[in-house]
Specification:
about 220 residues, globular, alpha/beta, Rossmann fold, single chain
């Protein structure tokens, strides 16, 4: 079985997808970390992130391994554990740049499909149910009010000690801008698959969302 969980930034999809995978004993695949890995590798090689040909060459050659860890998924790039390095804001912004480029998306979609074909996976992203695995057995689209998503992102940055000199209003503006870019890009835009279940997480706890998804997958549970 392939379970696709899509949604915009701050909707809770990564946290929820990881927990759902744990409860089902499925493999969790965070596609966002794959794009962040490409951005990280490109910056390490001093490659301009908007140089699509150069970044595509890196994306096609880089070896990305997603390994389950005690505190979540570990990310190895060319054999090096770069999990913590992917959490900084610079890499998040870089991932948004490379993810908007058609050549990179095509390469990463191929890599993601290869991972998914191993079976029994929960994969989260922005185009899993529409592009990567349109035939996925179960699809979910998580969303929330931009102000709530901004609040969550602000708290996350504070926990990482990265919220200094950053106002909540600025975070919300960035969330809205990212939504606009994701929903209006020419290739693989962010949108709810027609057969995906929409879950508004604005007023729901993580546990409530997880229970709703598990109940949909296994009605008898």
């Amino acid at each position: 079985m392939i379970i696709a969980i899509d949604g915009p930034a701050g909707s809770g999809k990564s946290t929820i997808a990881k927990i759902v995978a744990e409860k089902l004993n499925f493999r969790y695949i965070d596609t966002g970390s794959m794009y962040r890995s490409v951005a990280w590798k490109s910056l390490q090689k001093n490659t301009a992130l908007k140089d699509e040909d150069a970044v595509a060459d890196i994306a096609s050659k880089v070896q990305i391994e997603l390994v389950p860890g005690n505190n979540g998924q570990l990310v190895f790039v060319d054999g090096k554990n770069i999990t913590d390095q992917l959490k900084v804001e610079e890499i998040s912004r870089g991932a948004a740049i490379v993810a908007a480029q058609p050549m990179i998306r095509k390469i990463m979609t191929t890599k993601q499909r290869k991972l998914g074909k191993q079976g029994n996976v929960v994969m989260d992203g922005r185009d899993i149910g529409t592009v990567v695995f349109p035939q996925a057995e179960k699809k979910f689209f998580l969303d929330a009010d931009p102000k709530e998503r901004g609040r969550r992102r602000f708290i996350e940055l504070k926990e990482k000690d990265q919220a200094k000199n950053t106002d909540l209003s600025i975070i919300i503006e960035q969330i809205v801008q990212r939504d606009h870019e994701d929903r209006n890009r020419k290739i693989a835009p962010l949108k709810q698959a027609k057969d995906a279940m929409l879950i508004d997480t604005t007023f729901l706890s993580i546990d409530q969302v997880v229970k709703e998804i598990i109940k949909t997958i296994n009605p008898s549970s």
